[in-house]
Automatic annotation (TrEMBL):
It comes from Flavobacterium dankookense. Belongs to the 'phage' integrase family. XerD subfamily. Belongs to the 'phage' integrase family. XerC subfamily. This is Tyrosine recombinase XerC. It is found in: Cytoplasm. CDD domains: INT_XerDC_C.
Amino acid sequence: MNWNSYIKSFQNYLKIERGLSKNTIDNYTFDLERLLLFLSQNQIEVSPITIKDETIQQFIYTISKELNARSQARILSGLKSFFNYLIFEDYRTDNPMELIEAPRIGRKLPDTLSLEEIDALISAIDLSKPEGERNRAMLETLYGCGLRVSELVTLKISDLFFDEDFIKITGKGNKQRFVPIANSTKKYIDIYRSTIRNHLQISKNHEDTLFLNRRGKQLTRAMIFTIIKNLAVAINLQKNISPHTLRHSFATHLLENGADLRSIQIMLGHESITTTEIYVHLDKMHLSQIINAFHPRKM
């Protein structure tokens, strides 16, 4: 078997055995393709079974000149998973990544938006354009329900349980959860469906997809990024934001207003509470700002 055969087998394992999403599998594949490119450029002829840690070290040294510590760590994690899979399938008896340490990375606090900034972002949407009502409904859903962008673009009409005030979300690893939805968000989705979506020529296999492009197909993640970036430019927002910023803002605002961490964890679909705990750090920053602004003995 060559590299491509092992990688294909690994992809099937990630999809069938571990139930990972296409985006996650694509990321693992991209990590391996980076390694293959390095081997090709340096004319190193090794297979997944014979490659040694010395070669991996050379690869790491090369990518360290191009990527930051966080990107390096992600690639190393992907490679370690691949070689662990080869051990699991009895192709190898050792993992060449075993003694290789990932670069130290600090815990990055996510950017957030204030409620005023979110209102300004949504108000900048041009509702006179056909996609305006769709974009407003999408941003209201992203922020109002704390969704990942991949969860937004795959949201189905059959996932909407408006009478019960919930929507069903399929998250990472195809794990499902129910998230509360506010009346205002439901209103904007209903407006989009009645004024825009119901008049589209919907492509085959997209009949149940909620948010569609002009061709009646599912929107791409990249398109959501572009929409939000353009709105940020329109209001001269001096922050580097993405769809995930609205998700972070959702969690942060809940915490600031008294929601408990466990409830936020469930709504965000975090497998571990430690992932959600990053918002405690954000909340502490908010409290420090309050002290510095309003306490009579502020420094």
